[in-house]
Structures are given as structure tokens and as C-alpha cells.
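hiii, so i know i said id send this last week but things got crazy w the move. better late than never?? heres the sequnce for the chain we talked about at the cafe, plus the structure i predicted for it. fair warning i was half asleep when i ran it
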Amino acid sequence: MSVKLFVVIVTYKGQQWYDRCFGSLRESTIPVQTIVVDNASNDGTVEYIREHYPEIHLIESKENLGFGRANNIAMRYAMDHGCDYVFLLNQDAWVEKDTLENLVDIHQRHLEYGLLGPVQVNAEKTKVLNGVVKFLVNPDNVNLRLFSDLMMGTVDEVYSVAEINAAAWLLPRTTLETVGGFDPLYLHYGEDWNYLSRVLYHRLKVGLTPHVMVVHDCKDRVEQPKGYGMAFDKWLLQRATDIQYPDTQVDDMMRHYRRTAVVKLLTFHKATFKENWDAYRYLREHKDSIEQSRQQNKKKGANWL
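okay and structure toks below
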């Protein structure tokens, strides 16, 4: 199989996983070129990679760029060096020997897919991750044919879904040229959901490959960057920037939360008044950047790369 495949990994204080993650790529049945962007780790990550994995192209960031912006740097490098595919892989995940070869092979038979994701299993390889199962049973994401095929033992090689966790994504070059990279509005968490909505907006499919596996040891977590905001803020940003909704989305959401806040105030529901008013204020404060993001992401091209 003659393709140029780059594996992109963002690192941040994750030495407990590096040998399993980087080591698995050395065993891949398809040759890969690995790019690591380190987000200003101070635990010896850079020195460890240089000493033990000299084949890796290491990019050192002087600051913590978050997940999306760091990935964008590496994806731009891959495109500039003639990639056919980019595989995004978490630092706490690792592949089977044939994972990457199988993903590329499946994609070349199903070119309508703009993104493929393997099934993510726990470190012991005893179960599918709960997060993956939750995605699949979400009413907005469920593929009934997949569940029927699972029951009947006739599972196909790829199924169309709306959500796959970005711990392991195969992106063909055409997707990078059409959709681009991660939106820099997102520091950490939420950028993958935003990206998926953009893939679908540009009429590409998102695919789950149930016969292909990647191990994701997500029970061990490093400290998350501070200052990202509350979970509800993240949900508001996701909803407001989703270009599958009409251009009136931000204004519609602001009107809804402002109107609800007034009703709650007049009926003396202090707690729910504050929740709705805070949501309105958040959208008002970020409206300009959200609308700029929406307009940029609707354009075809290597956005943010």
C-alpha cells in the first residue's frame, strides 16, 4: 500500500504512555511518519522523545496551545510535506499493528467518508469505552443498521455516525483541504464536536469502523488546562458555532435566554434567572468571535491551518 501517512500526537506531561503510544507506531504494518507537538511539558517529555524516539519529528511549543491549535501546527506540517492521510492519536492511546493499514484500506473503498474512527477499547482490551457507547446510543447519533447487524452477526466494515471521540481519527488530505483544522475558539474539549459538525456540513460522512481497534487508556488523566470555562459554557459555544444551524442561531439563542431570564425574574426564580442571564451574557460577549468563526468554517478550504 503506497500512501504517505502522518501520525499526529499532542503531548503534555504524559510519559507514562509514551512507550506504548510511540512504540506501537514502530510496529505498524504500514509505514508512518510521526509528528509530536509538545504543549510546553516540564516533565522531561522533550528530552525523552529525543533520546528514545529519534525518528519522531518533534515540535516544541513554548506555551500550552491546547489540543486543537497544537494539532493544527502538525497537520499543516503534514500537508506541506505531501501527506495523503493524517491520523490523529491521543498520547494516552496506542494502535494495533494493522490498525492504520486497515483504516486506510477501508477509506480507499469508501471515499465519501471525510473521517474514520476505529472502536476505542480500554487498556486491558476487555470492553469498549463507555464514552464510545454513549455516543452510539445518543438519539442524534444512533445508527440503527449497526445495532441490527451486531445482533445478526453481519457487521459491515464502516457505518455512518455523527460523533466519534478525537482520540483516534483518520483524516484524508481531501478533508483537510475542504474542512481545514480545529477552530482556535476551542482551547480544550469541544473542538472535536465542532469539527465533526463542519465535516457533515461540507457533505462528507463520518464513519465508525467496528472491526478496527485502538486502545485508549483514558482512566489516567493529566491535569487539565485551567481557565477553559464551565461545561455549560462549552455547550453554548458548541451549539452557537454549529454551522449546520442557520445563521440566525446566535441571535435566536440570545433571545431565548434573555426572554427566559426575564420570565424567571418576574416569577421570583432567582437561581434559574441567573443561569439564563449568564448564558445570555456569555453569548453576547462572544457573539462577534462566534459569528466570525461560523462564516470562516462555512468556506471550503484549509481553515485554521
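btw The CA atoms of residues 57 and 287 lie 38 Å apart. thought thatd interest u
miss u guys!!
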